[in-house]
């Protein structure tokens, strides 16, 4: 019978493999799905998904700040519930984002002047960091749920600010392009 010492590294290797695969597969799958030119007709309701995503990003931003507050107060249970809720909302966001882009053409930004480069800077940094943050968030969640709190804290030093930036810029980008959505 294998001892716990030999099982732990094997489980860790499997978890790392799954995290690494998901961290690559999710952005690649999203990019492939966004590249599909033939849109699927699931009904008019899908035109409301960007607004839902703006709300999801807003709530996620608040939850991330609440999670930070709770852990600073040493309220681990409230921190865990808040952060797992933020993680779940992030997953829901991803589903809604993909559904929207599978069913609707991308909305062009209509702003002009100085606002245009600001919008594109925020959009590009948001997209790039949303790809990067997947790996950090998955590791942070894994370490927390597996009781590896020192590794969780180390990962969160990077995961938290990137995730918060992605959530907040998601809201800002949504508010900037919102006037150009057509229903």
From TrEMBL:
Keywords: Membrane, Transmembrane, Transmembrane helix
Organism, as annotated: Spirosoma endophyticum
Keyword field contains Transmembrane helix: yes
Xref: InterPro entries: DUF420 (IPR007352)
The protein, known as: Putative membrane protein
Taxonomic placement: Bacteria, Pseudomonadati, Bacteroidota, Cytophagia, Cytophagales
Domain of life: Bacteria
Pfam families: DUF420
Signal peptide: none
Transmembrane annotation, as ranges: 18-36, 48-71, 83-103, 118-138, 158-177
